[in-house]
Design a protein that fits this description.
Strand content: 5-15%
Largest sheet: 2 strands, antiparallel
Shape: globular
Distance between the termini: 21 Å
């Protein structure tokens, strides 16, 4: 994933951890990293669709339901609005 704001690239959290020497991703099995990447991407997409009012909650993958529900709760409790 590439993060860009007003044309300026920014590192991901994973990149910051890696380059800061806080985490060695070489010690983690490839299948674990792939599974975590799937979860992260799927959560991101579900939250994006929720924020746009386009989500069909029946299609939210059970593997990410907890993350999705936590986002909904955060929005409800704090009145968070995406601009």
């Amino acid at each position: 994933m590439r993060y860009v704001i007003e044309g300026q690239p920014y590192p991901s959290v994973t990149e910051l951890l890696k380059y800061g020497g806080k985490y060695d991703f070489n010690d983690i099995p490839k299948y674990t990293l792939e599974r975590k990447a799937y979860i992260g991407s799927t959560v991101h997409k579900a939250i994006e669709l929720f924020n746009e009012g386009k989500i069909n909650e029946r299609t939210v993958d059970a593997k990410i339901k907890g993350y999705y529900d936590a986002w909904k709760s955060f929005v409800e409790v704090y009145g968070y609005k995406v601009l």
